[in-house]
Amino acid sequence: MTFSIADRTVLITGGNTGIGKATAHALAARGARVTIACRDAERAAAASDEIEDATGTPVDVLPLDLASLASVRDAATQFAAEHATLDVLINNAGVAVFGRRRATTDGFERQFGVNHLGHFVLTTSLLDRITERIVNVSSAGYALARDGLRWDDLQWEQEYDGWQAYGASKLCNLYFTWELADRLRDRGVTANALHPGFVDTDLGYRRPEEGGKPRPAPHDAVTDGTIPESGPDLSTLGTPLTAVEGARTSVMLASDPILATVTGAYFDDRQRRIDLDGLAVDREASARLWALSVDLTT
């Protein structure tokens, strides 16, 4: 039977803003039964109402704070109680902490904890419900972890470098994808990763309730410590994509019938399959990360 996203059950983390919201909108418009998993209930409800008003398709909301493994487990339990199956899981949410080191509720470095461990626990908790596709939003920023993962200091407790820690968390997304692809191949469930592009979203800006200042207008200097002036030269990336443009590859991986059997692959922001090499496809590191993630979360 030809795959169609219509009437498929889809769960998207971080679906109340940015790329996640644009992805939810696009899939709801195609008839998918979408649930957005979000930390902020008010913002999530507003996004759900906006998408339903625009598409005519209801969008459910699931409370989820990826910085708290208790919240992640509660979310998985609630979702499983309400849905017999999960056809497509899109691990979209992410944080970028470029200033001083910050920790999750469980004491993990925040980027590692949210971008990887939170999604690891959510995904593995729902594995028996997932029937078709897992989509992991990574980033070309994985290359910032130029020496791979710091196995002796995964929590970045020594010489914290926010840019490299962010890159490491995105490398974790890739390693997680390769392991999922191998472990789920016999079940016919696919797992793929993507780079959404350089997108104009709130990533990297702390919310006021976390001590951050309002997001500056485009091209304004950022001097509050959220994004330091030193670091990679982002000006070389050109004009940022819109959230809708940044969601295109996520939407494709979630819905394109042609990709029904494609697994363990990486796609860029132009929907092209890219063959990675070197550290990005280190299978020993992928297996090691999975084992360590189990140890850290059990």
Give a short summary of the structure.
This protein has helices spanning 18-29, 41-55, 69-82, 110-125, 162-184, 243-246, 248-255, 283-297, and strands at 9-13, 33-38, 59-63, 86-91, 130-137, 190-194, 266-267. It is α/β, with parallel strands linked by helices and 298 residues long. The chain has one domain (9-297): Rossmann fold, CATH 3.40.50.
Rg is 18 Å
Low-confidence stretches: 204-230
Shape assignment? globular
CATH superfamily caption: NAD(P)-binding Rossmann-like Domain
Just name the CATH architecture.
Answer: 3-Layer(aba) Sandwich
Alpha plus pi helix count: 8
Number of domains: 1
CATH C-level name = Alpha Beta
Mean pLDDT: 89
Strand content: 5-15%
- Straight-line distance between termini: 39 Å
* H/E series: EHEHEHEHEHEHHEH
Task: Describe the 3D structure.
The chain is an alpha/beta fold. The protein has one domain (9-297): Rossmann fold (3-Layer(aba) Sandwich), CATH 3.40.50. It is 36% helix and 12% strand. The protein is built from 8 helices and 7 strands; from the N terminus they run βαβαβαβαβαβααβα. The protein has a 7-stranded parallel sheet with strand order 3-2-1-4-5-6-7, with helices on both faces. Strand 1, helix 1 and strand 2 (33-38) form a beta-alpha-beta unit. Helix 5 packs across helix 8 (283-297). The chain is globular and about 50 Å long. The model is unreliable at 204-230 (pLDDT under 50).
